[in-house]
Design brief:
299 residues; alpha/beta; TIM Barrel; 12% strand
């Protein structure tokens, strides 16, 4: 159940037309082909990086359809679907076509700050409703609530349809505890590009990456080397990519990576409010760092 969602996953952006009024499905198709051709292992549709809160229900459905139809290499797909109203999330799951979807990535309920028992009950209900295995998504910097190691492990051991977690807490002690005490097939994925290699060095199974939208070859190369325990070689890529990763998140996400995709000619540098495009200074910085990366001998 867990084996498909490991290695390098890419949290796909949603490209828009010049005015941001429509989704650019041709650019989305181009992006799916680009990351697939450059070694990523699975795709993540409609996550945070996709600006999903700004998409209509119809657009969300069409974006998922486009990703499925563009997926010529038949990579596994994880679908982002979550919220802070458990009954509403369950209803959305029941209305969603999970054909071609290999996992459900569900963010912790945000804003209303549930207790750990509330988080447990929420995910238990989500897992019972989902026809696909569930991947927890812990990102307290966005949600305002942390899924503790104890709650993660309780869900991992007690709820059959929960397959793993995308951990973006940045708390290495917490993630290490999960890695130490998890069931054998429970997948732990980095939710932070900057922490992928350190987490893989202590047993994590890969990453759901933002940077891999624009730099799939480098991210996948590093993850593959780390998976083969070639940490010295992986570290060379990690170090070379560190300035770029810092730049990609300097003005928020997906602000930086959309600027990079624009420089690559894959998607326009257009976001929907309340997000805005990268400043000219950041675009110039990303362009400079892209030139520097070209001179590196990376995988």
């Amino acid at each position: 159940m867990a084996s498909k969602i490991t290695g390098t996953g890419v949290a796909l952006v949603t490209p828009f037309d010049a005015k941001g009024r429509r989704v650019d499905y041709a650019a989305l198709t181009k992006l799916v082909n680009f990351v697939a051709d450059n070694g990523v292992n699975f795709l993540v549709a409609l996550g945070t990086t996709a600006e999903t809160p700004t998409l209509s229900d119809g657009e969300r459905k069409e974006v998922l359809t486009c990703i499925k139809s563009s997926n010529a290499k038949n990579l596994p797909i994880a679908l982002g679907l979550g919220g802070n109203n458990t009954a509403n999330v369950v209803e959305k799951i029941r209305r969603t076509d999970f054909g071609g979807v290999d996992a459900l990535l569900s963010v912790a309920p945000y804003y209303n700050k549930p207790s750990q028992q509330g988080l447990y009950e929420h995910y238990k209900a989500v897992a019972a409703a989902s026809p696909a295995p569930v991947l927890l998504y812990n990102v307290p910097g966005r949600t305002g609530v942390n899924i503790s190691a104890e709650t993660t492990l309780r869900l991992a051991h007690e709820v059959k349809n929960i397959m793993g977690i995308k951990e973006a807490s940045g708390n290495l002690s917490q993630i290490s505890r999960i890695l130490r005490d998890r069931p054998q097939n429970f997948v732990v994925l980095s939710g932070d590009d900057a922490l992928t290699l350190p987490l893989m060095a202590v047993g994590a199974n890969g990453v759901i990456s933002v940077a891999a939208n624009a730099f799939p070859k480098q991210v996948a190369g590093m993850v593959n080397l780390a998976g083969a325990q070639k940490y010295d070689e992986a570290a060379k890529i990690h170090m070379a990519m560190t300035p770029m990763v810092e730049a990609l998140f300097a003005e928020g996400n997906p602000t930086g990576v959309k600027a990079a995709l624009s420089l690559l000619g894959i998607a326009a540098n257009v976001l929907r409010l309340p997000l805005i495009p990268a400043t000219e200074n950041l675009v110039a910085s990303i362009a400079q760092k892209m030139d520097e990366l070209k001179n590196e001998n990376l995988q």
